[in-house]
Amino acid sequence: MSEVRRVYMDNSATTPVDPEVKEEMMRFFSEEYGNASQMYSLGQNANVALILARERVASLIGAKSTNEIIFNSGGTEGDNTALKGIVLNRKNEKKHLITSEIEHPAILNTSKYLEKSGIKVTYLPVDEFGLVSLEDLKNAITKETALVSIMHANNEIGTIEPIKEMAEITHDAGAVFHTDAVQTVGKIPVDVEELGVDLLSISSHKLYGPKGVGVLYKKQGTRLEPLMHGGGHEKGFRSGTENISGIVGLGKAAELAEKHLPQEQAKLTKMRDKLIDQFLKVKDTRLNGHRTKRLPHNANISFKYVEGEAMILRLDAQGIYASTGSACSTKKLSASHVLLAIGLRPEIAHGSLRLTLGRWTTDDDIDYTLKVVPEVVKDLREMSAYRKDTEEFVMSLKDEGHDDH
Length: 405
Ligand SMILES: Cc1ncc(COP(=O)(O)O)c(C=O)c1O
Description:
By secondary structure, the chain is of the alpha/beta class. It has helices spanning 19-30, 41-61, 75-89, 105-116, 134-140, 163-172, 192-195, 244-279, 308-317, 337-341, 346-350, 363-383, 387-399; strands at residues 7-8, 69-72, 96-100, 120-124, 145-149, 176-180, 199-203, 214-218, 285-287, 298-303, 320-321, 323-324, 326-328, 333-335, 352-356.
Protein backbone atom coordinates (compact mmCIF):
# COMPACT_ATOMS: atom_id res chain seq x y z
CA MET A 1 0.00 0.00 0.00
CA SER A 2 1.39 3.39 -0.89
CA GLU A 3 1.87 5.75 2.01
CA VAL A 4 -0.46 8.75 2.27
CA ARG A 5 1.53 11.93 1.90
CA ARG A 6 1.67 14.35 4.81
CA VAL A 7 0.83 17.97 4.18
CA TYR A 8 0.99 20.07 7.34
CA MET A 9 -1.27 23.08 6.89
CA ASP A 10 -1.75 24.05 10.54
CA ASN A 11 1.29 26.21 11.29
CA SER A 12 -0.79 28.70 13.28
CA ALA A 13 -1.62 25.93 15.75
CA THR A 14 2.04 25.04 16.14
CA THR A 15 5.17 24.67 14.04
CA PRO A 16 7.73 21.88 13.85
CA VAL A 17 11.02 22.68 15.58
CA ASP A 18 13.64 23.79 13.06
CA PRO A 19 16.49 21.23 12.94
CA GLU A 20 19.02 24.01 13.61
CA VAL A 21 17.04 24.99 16.71
CA LYS A 22 16.95 21.41 17.94
CA GLU A 23 20.66 20.98 17.39
CA GLU A 24 21.50 24.06 19.43
CA MET A 25 19.18 22.99 22.25
CA MET A 26 20.48 19.45 22.71
CA ARG A 27 23.69 20.41 24.58
CA PHE A 28 21.67 22.10 27.30
CA PHE A 29 19.92 18.94 28.47
CA SER A 30 22.74 16.75 29.70
CA GLU A 31 26.05 18.53 29.08
CA GLU A 32 25.47 22.19 29.85
CA TYR A 33 22.84 21.50 32.49
CA GLY A 34 23.98 24.14 34.99
CA ASN A 35 21.72 26.54 36.83
CA ALA A 36 22.28 30.02 35.37
CA SER A 37 22.21 31.57 38.85
CA GLN A 38 25.34 29.69 39.99
CA MET A 39 28.78 31.33 39.95
CA TYR A 40 30.82 28.30 38.89
CA SER A 41 31.60 27.80 35.22
CA LEU A 42 28.86 25.25 34.50
CA GLY A 43 26.27 27.74 35.76
CA GLN A 44 27.89 30.63 33.93
CA ASN A 45 27.82 28.71 30.63
CA ALA A 46 24.04 28.56 31.00
CA ASN A 47 23.99 32.24 31.86
CA VAL A 48 25.96 33.10 28.72
CA ALA A 49 23.44 31.10 26.65
CA LEU A 50 20.64 33.02 28.33
CA ILE A 51 22.27 36.35 27.47
CA LEU A 52 22.70 35.35 23.82
CA ALA A 53 19.06 34.22 23.54
CA ARG A 54 17.91 37.51 25.06
CA GLU A 55 19.97 39.44 22.50
CA ARG A 56 18.54 37.42 19.62
CA VAL A 57 14.93 37.98 20.67
CA ALA A 58 15.56 41.68 21.36
CA SER A 59 17.08 42.03 17.89
CA LEU A 60 14.14 40.28 16.18
CA ILE A 61 11.58 42.66 17.71
CA GLY A 62 13.71 45.81 17.81
CA ALA A 63 13.77 46.12 21.60
CA LYS A 64 16.04 48.90 22.87
CA SER A 65 17.45 46.85 25.71
CA THR A 66 17.73 43.16 26.58
CA ASN A 67 16.26 44.15 29.97
CA GLU A 68 12.94 44.44 28.17
CA ILE A 69 12.82 40.69 27.42
CA ILE A 70 11.13 38.56 30.10
CA PHE A 71 11.31 34.83 29.38
CA ASN A 72 8.28 32.79 30.42
CA SER A 73 6.31 29.69 29.44
CA GLY A 74 4.58 31.03 26.29
CA GLY A 75 1.78 33.11 24.89
CA THR A 76 -0.81 32.21 27.50
CA GLU A 77 1.48 33.28 30.33
CA GLY A 78 2.48 36.48 28.54
CA ASP A 79 -1.16 37.42 28.03
CA ASN A 80 -2.09 36.60 31.63
CA THR A 81 0.87 38.55 33.00
CA ALA A 82 0.10 41.59 30.87
CA LEU A 83 -3.55 41.78 31.89
CA LYS A 84 -3.35 40.75 35.53
CA GLY A 85 0.04 42.42 36.09
CA ILE A 86 -1.14 45.84 34.87
CA VAL A 87 -4.57 45.72 36.46
CA LEU A 88 -3.21 44.52 39.80
CA ASN A 89 -0.56 47.22 39.79
CA ARG A 90 -3.15 49.97 39.24
CA LYS A 91 -6.09 48.53 41.15
CA ASN A 92 -6.46 51.60 43.35
CA GLU A 93 -6.30 54.07 40.46
CA LYS A 94 -7.91 52.50 37.41
CA LYS A 95 -10.40 49.69 37.02
CA HIS A 96 -11.11 49.49 33.30
CA LEU A 97 -9.69 47.23 30.63
CA ILE A 98 -10.34 47.31 26.87
CA THR A 99 -9.87 44.36 24.55
CA SER A 100 -11.59 42.96 21.44
CA GLU A 101 -14.17 40.27 20.80
CA ILE A 102 -11.79 38.26 18.60
CA GLU A 103 -8.88 37.76 21.01
CA HIS A 104 -7.42 34.37 21.84
CA PRO A 105 -8.96 32.66 24.92
CA ALA A 106 -5.76 33.53 26.82
CA ILE A 107 -6.97 37.15 26.72
CA LEU A 108 -10.75 36.59 26.74
CA ASN A 109 -10.82 34.20 29.66
CA THR A 110 -8.35 36.30 31.66
CA SER A 111 -10.59 39.31 31.04
CA LYS A 112 -13.64 37.38 32.23
CA TYR A 113 -11.73 36.35 35.33
CA LEU A 114 -10.80 39.98 36.05
CA GLU A 115 -14.44 41.01 35.62
CA LYS A 116 -15.29 38.74 38.56
CA SER A 117 -12.94 40.76 40.75
CA GLY A 118 -14.60 44.07 39.92
CA ILE A 119 -12.72 45.18 36.79
CA LYS A 120 -14.90 46.67 34.06
CA VAL A 121 -14.03 45.18 30.66
CA THR A 122 -15.03 46.58 27.26
CA TYR A 123 -14.93 44.06 24.40
CA LEU A 124 -14.63 46.05 21.16
CA PRO A 125 -16.46 44.60 18.16
CA VAL A 126 -14.81 44.15 14.75
CA ASP A 127 -16.00 44.83 11.21
CA GLU A 128 -16.69 42.16 8.57
CA PHE A 129 -12.95 41.80 7.91
CA GLY A 130 -12.04 41.45 11.59
CA LEU A 131 -10.68 44.97 12.03
CA VAL A 132 -11.13 46.91 15.27
CA SER A 133 -12.26 50.49 14.65
CA LEU A 134 -10.08 53.34 15.93
CA GLU A 135 -13.23 55.37 16.54
CA ASP A 136 -14.65 52.63 18.75
CA LEU A 137 -11.44 52.62 20.77
CA LYS A 138 -11.50 56.41 21.14
CA ASN A 139 -15.11 56.24 22.33
CA ALA A 140 -14.46 53.45 24.82
CA ILE A 141 -11.29 54.76 26.45
CA THR A 142 -11.60 56.83 29.64
CA LYS A 143 -9.41 58.14 32.47
CA GLU A 144 -10.32 54.91 34.27
CA THR A 145 -8.72 52.72 31.56
CA ALA A 146 -5.60 50.96 32.83
CA LEU A 147 -4.87 48.80 29.80
CA VAL A 148 -5.83 48.26 26.17
CA SER A 149 -4.98 44.82 24.79
CA ILE A 150 -5.56 44.16 21.09
CA MET A 151 -3.97 41.28 19.20
CA HIS A 152 -1.48 42.08 16.43
CA ALA A 153 -2.99 39.51 14.07
CA ASN A 154 -5.82 37.10 14.55
CA ASN A 155 -4.96 33.40 14.76
CA GLU A 156 -8.05 32.23 12.86
CA ILE A 157 -8.65 34.72 10.07
CA GLY A 158 -5.18 36.30 9.90
CA THR A 159 -6.35 39.93 9.96
CA ILE A 160 -3.61 42.37 10.98
CA GLU A 161 -4.83 45.14 13.31
CA PRO A 162 -3.73 48.82 13.24
CA ILE A 163 -1.59 48.48 16.37
CA LYS A 164 0.51 51.64 15.99
CA GLU A 165 -2.58 53.87 15.74
CA MET A 166 -4.29 52.12 18.65
CA ALA A 167 -1.18 52.41 20.84
CA GLU A 168 -1.14 56.17 20.14
CA ILE A 169 -4.79 56.59 21.12
CA THR A 170 -4.14 54.55 24.26
CA HIS A 171 -1.13 56.62 25.31
CA ASP A 172 -2.99 59.88 24.71
CA ALA A 173 -5.51 58.66 27.28
CA GLY A 174 -2.76 57.74 29.76
CA ALA A 175 -3.21 53.97 29.55
CA VAL A 176 -0.84 51.08 28.82
CA PHE A 177 -0.96 49.17 25.51
CA HIS A 178 -0.41 45.42 25.16
CA THR A 179 -0.51 43.34 22.01
CA ASP A 180 -0.66 39.59 21.66
CA ALA A 181 1.86 39.13 18.84
CA VAL A 182 1.97 35.34 19.05
CA GLN A 183 0.89 35.01 15.40
CA THR A 184 3.04 37.79 13.95
CA VAL A 185 6.54 37.58 15.42
CA GLY A 186 8.73 35.82 12.87
CA LYS A 187 6.00 36.04 10.18
CA ILE A 188 5.83 39.77 9.46
CA PRO A 189 8.22 42.52 10.61
CA VAL A 190 7.50 43.37 14.25
CA ASP A 191 9.29 46.37 15.73
CA VAL A 192 8.17 47.28 19.23
CA GLU A 193 9.48 50.85 18.94
CA GLU A 194 7.79 51.40 15.61
CA LEU A 195 4.52 49.91 16.91
CA GLY A 196 4.84 51.93 20.12
CA VAL A 197 3.64 49.12 22.39
CA ASP A 198 4.39 48.82 26.11
CA LEU A 199 3.89 45.05 26.35
CA LEU A 200 3.95 42.30 23.71
CA SER A 201 3.48 38.52 23.98
CA ILE A 202 5.52 35.99 21.99
CA SER A 203 5.29 32.20 21.83
CA SER A 204 8.26 30.12 20.69
CA HIS A 205 6.30 27.20 19.22
CA LYS A 206 4.69 29.40 16.58
CA LEU A 207 8.08 30.33 15.10
CA TYR A 208 9.79 26.96 14.78
CA GLY A 209 11.02 26.90 18.38
CA PRO A 210 10.09 24.46 21.17
CA LYS A 211 6.78 24.47 23.05
CA GLY A 212 6.40 25.78 26.59
CA VAL A 213 8.59 28.87 26.26
CA GLY A 214 7.92 32.47 25.29
CA VAL A 215 8.57 36.11 26.05
CA LEU A 216 6.72 39.05 27.45
CA TYR A 217 8.36 42.20 26.08
CA LYS A 218 8.04 44.98 28.65
CA LYS A 219 9.09 48.45 27.65
CA GLN A 220 11.47 49.91 30.19
CA GLY A 221 9.65 51.83 32.88
CA THR A 222 6.28 50.06 32.48
CA ARG A 223 5.00 49.27 35.98
CA LEU A 224 3.89 45.64 36.21
CA GLU A 225 3.07 43.23 39.01
CA PRO A 226 4.64 39.76 38.55
CA LEU A 227 2.44 36.65 38.63
CA MET A 228 5.23 34.40 39.90
CA HIS A 229 7.03 35.26 43.13
CA GLY A 230 10.15 33.42 44.19
CA GLY A 231 13.88 33.72 43.57
CA GLY A 232 13.62 36.96 41.59
CA HIS A 233 14.58 35.61 38.16
CA GLU A 234 13.97 37.75 35.07
CA LYS A 235 14.57 40.93 37.08
CA GLY A 236 11.87 39.86 39.51
CA PHE A 237 9.15 39.72 36.86
CA ARG A 238 9.11 35.95 36.47
CA SER A 239 10.63 33.83 39.18
CA GLY A 240 11.56 30.20 38.60
CA THR A 241 14.75 28.52 37.39
CA GLU A 242 15.09 29.36 33.72
CA ASN A 243 14.13 26.77 31.09
CA ILE A 244 17.59 27.08 29.53
CA SER A 245 17.21 24.55 26.71
CA GLY A 246 13.84 26.04 25.76
CA ILE A 247 15.16 29.59 25.91
CA VAL A 248 18.20 28.61 23.82
CA GLY A 249 15.78 27.12 21.27
CA LEU A 250 13.65 30.26 21.21
CA GLY A 251 16.79 32.39 20.80
CA LYS A 252 17.95 30.34 17.84
CA ALA A 253 14.43 30.38 16.36
CA ALA A 254 14.43 34.18 16.68
CA GLU A 255 17.79 34.42 14.92
CA LEU A 256 16.58 32.19 12.07
CA ALA A 257 13.29 34.11 11.82
CA GLU A 258 15.16 37.38 11.41
CA LYS A 259 17.35 35.84 8.72
CA HIS A 260 14.54 34.13 6.76
CA LEU A 261 11.68 36.58 7.24
CA PRO A 262 11.81 38.59 3.99
CA GLN A 263 12.07 35.54 1.69
CA GLU A 264 9.60 33.51 3.73
CA GLN A 265 7.05 36.31 3.81
CA ALA A 266 7.26 36.69 0.03
CA LYS A 267 7.09 32.94 -0.64
CA LEU A 268 4.15 32.34 1.71
CA THR A 269 2.20 35.34 0.45
CA LYS A 270 2.39 33.94 -3.08
CA MET A 271 1.30 30.48 -1.98
CA ARG A 272 -1.49 31.91 0.19
CA ASP A 273 -2.82 33.99 -2.69
CA LYS A 274 -2.82 30.99 -4.99
CA LEU A 275 -4.86 29.01 -2.45
CA ILE A 276 -7.32 31.86 -1.88
CA ASP A 277 -7.77 32.67 -5.58
CA GLN A 278 -8.34 29.03 -6.52
CA PHE A 279 -10.68 28.28 -3.63
CA LEU A 280 -12.82 31.31 -4.39
CA LYS A 281 -13.45 29.80 -7.80
CA VAL A 282 -15.26 26.92 -6.09
CA LYS A 283 -18.99 27.66 -5.95
CA ASP A 284 -20.46 28.99 -2.69
CA THR A 285 -17.28 29.97 -0.91
CA ARG A 286 -16.18 33.11 0.90
CA LEU A 287 -12.89 34.39 2.21
CA ASN A 288 -12.78 35.12 5.93
CA GLY A 289 -10.56 38.00 7.05
CA HIS A 290 -9.08 40.89 5.13
CA ARG A 291 -7.76 40.31 1.62
CA THR A 292 -4.52 42.27 2.06
CA LYS A 293 -4.18 43.22 5.77
CA ARG A 294 -3.55 39.56 6.36
CA LEU A 295 -0.88 37.20 7.67
CA PRO A 296 1.21 35.89 4.77
CA HIS A 297 0.59 32.28 5.69
CA ASN A 298 -3.16 32.31 6.45
CA ALA A 299 -6.01 31.27 4.16
CA ASN A 300 -9.44 30.93 5.78
CA ILE A 301 -12.33 29.95 3.55
CA SER A 302 -15.94 29.07 4.30
CA PHE A 303 -17.36 26.32 2.14
CA LYS A 304 -21.11 26.61 2.38
CA TYR A 305 -23.16 23.44 2.94
CA VAL A 306 -20.14 21.67 4.42
CA GLU A 307 -19.61 20.64 8.03
CA GLY A 308 -16.11 21.60 9.16
CA GLU A 309 -15.30 18.65 11.36
CA ALA A 310 -16.27 16.18 8.64
CA MET A 311 -14.02 18.12 6.25
CA ILE A 312 -11.08 17.99 8.69
CA LEU A 313 -11.44 14.23 9.13
CA ARG A 314 -11.70 13.63 5.41
CA LEU A 315 -8.63 15.79 4.78
CA ASP A 316 -6.77 13.96 7.53
CA ALA A 317 -7.45 10.69 5.73
CA GLN A 318 -5.76 12.22 2.69
CA GLY A 319 -2.78 13.40 4.75
CA ILE A 320 -3.73 17.07 5.01
CA TYR A 321 -3.69 18.60 8.50
CA ALA A 322 -5.85 21.72 8.84
CA SER A 323 -8.28 23.48 11.22
CA THR A 324 -11.91 24.44 11.09
CA GLY A 325 -14.12 27.16 12.55
CA SER A 326 -16.00 24.88 14.84
CA ALA A 327 -14.72 23.41 18.04
CA CYS A 328 -16.21 20.30 19.49
CA SER A 329 -17.03 20.95 23.13
CA THR A 330 -18.37 18.16 25.29
CA LYS A 331 -22.00 18.53 24.34
CA LYS A 332 -22.32 20.62 21.23
CA LEU A 333 -20.45 21.96 18.26
CA SER A 334 -19.85 25.64 18.91
CA ALA A 335 -18.97 27.98 16.08
CA SER A 336 -15.78 30.01 16.32
CA HIS A 337 -16.25 33.27 18.28
CA VAL A 338 -14.06 35.00 15.70
CA LEU A 339 -16.18 33.98 12.72
CA LEU A 340 -19.35 34.93 14.58
CA ALA A 341 -17.80 38.31 15.43
CA ILE A 342 -17.19 39.09 11.73
CA GLY A 343 -20.86 38.42 11.08
CA LEU A 344 -21.00 34.83 9.87
CA ARG A 345 -24.04 32.73 10.61
CA PRO A 346 -23.12 29.69 12.74
CA GLU A 347 -23.98 27.41 9.79
CA ILE A 348 -21.42 29.14 7.61
CA ALA A 349 -18.80 29.37 10.35
CA HIS A 350 -19.02 25.61 10.82
CA GLY A 351 -17.98 25.06 7.22
CA SER A 352 -14.78 27.07 7.38
CA LEU A 353 -11.32 25.78 6.72
CA ARG A 354 -8.14 27.41 8.04
CA LEU A 355 -4.97 26.53 6.18
CA THR A 356 -1.79 27.99 7.64
CA LEU A 357 1.43 27.51 5.71
CA GLY A 358 4.96 27.33 7.01
CA ARG A 359 8.69 27.22 6.38
CA TRP A 360 8.55 23.82 4.73
CA THR A 361 5.37 24.18 2.68
CA THR A 362 6.14 23.37 -0.97
CA ASP A 363 4.46 24.21 -4.26
CA ASP A 364 3.57 20.52 -4.49
CA ASP A 365 1.79 20.76 -1.13
CA ILE A 366 -0.25 23.69 -2.43
CA ASP A 367 -1.16 21.84 -5.63
CA TYR A 368 -2.08 18.70 -3.71
CA THR A 369 -4.29 20.73 -1.35
CA LEU A 370 -5.92 22.50 -4.27
CA LYS A 371 -6.75 19.13 -5.78
CA VAL A 372 -7.97 17.36 -2.63
CA VAL A 373 -10.00 20.07 -0.86
CA PRO A 374 -12.49 20.72 -3.71
CA GLU A 375 -13.00 16.94 -4.10
CA VAL A 376 -13.74 16.58 -0.40
CA VAL A 377 -16.05 19.61 -0.47
CA LYS A 378 -17.94 18.24 -3.47
CA ASP A 379 -18.35 14.88 -1.80
CA LEU A 380 -19.55 16.32 1.48
CA ARG A 381 -21.95 18.67 -0.24
CA GLU A 382 -23.51 15.77 -2.09
CA MET A 383 -24.30 14.06 1.18
CA SER A 384 -25.05 17.23 3.14
CA ALA A 385 -28.23 16.88 5.18
CA TYR A 386 -28.58 20.52 5.98
CA ARG A 387 -28.04 22.07 2.60
CA LYS A 388 -31.70 22.97 2.29
CA ASP A 389 -31.86 24.38 5.81
CA THR A 390 -28.93 26.69 5.19
CA GLU A 391 -29.94 27.87 1.76
CA GLU A 392 -32.09 30.61 3.27
CA PHE A 393 -29.29 31.77 5.58
CA VAL A 394 -26.82 31.91 2.74
CA MET A 395 -29.12 34.04 0.71
CA SER A 396 -29.64 36.46 3.57
CA LEU A 397 -25.89 36.68 4.06
CA LYS A 398 -25.55 37.61 0.40
CA ASP A 399 -28.23 40.26 0.79
CA GLU A 400 -26.28 41.83 3.61
CA GLY A 401 -23.36 42.23 1.24
CA HIS A 402 -21.04 39.92 3.19
CA ASP A 403 -20.21 37.97 0.14
CA ASP A 404 -18.16 40.33 -1.93
CA HIS A 405 -14.61 39.80 -0.74
C1 LIG B 1 -3.05 34.61 19.28
C2 LIG B 1 -2.59 33.61 20.28
N1 LIG B 1 -2.37 34.00 21.55
C3 LIG B 1 -1.95 33.15 22.49
C4 LIG B 1 -1.73 31.83 22.21
C5 LIG B 1 -1.25 30.91 23.30
O1 LIG B 1 0.12 30.67 23.17
P1 LIG B 1 0.80 29.41 23.92
O2 LIG B 1 0.35 28.19 23.21
O3 LIG B 1 2.27 29.65 23.79
O4 LIG B 1 0.37 29.47 25.34
C6 LIG B 1 -1.95 31.36 20.91
C7 LIG B 1 -1.79 29.92 20.58
O5 LIG B 1 -2.57 29.36 19.85
C8 LIG B 1 -2.39 32.28 19.91
O6 LIG B 1 -2.61 31.90 18.66
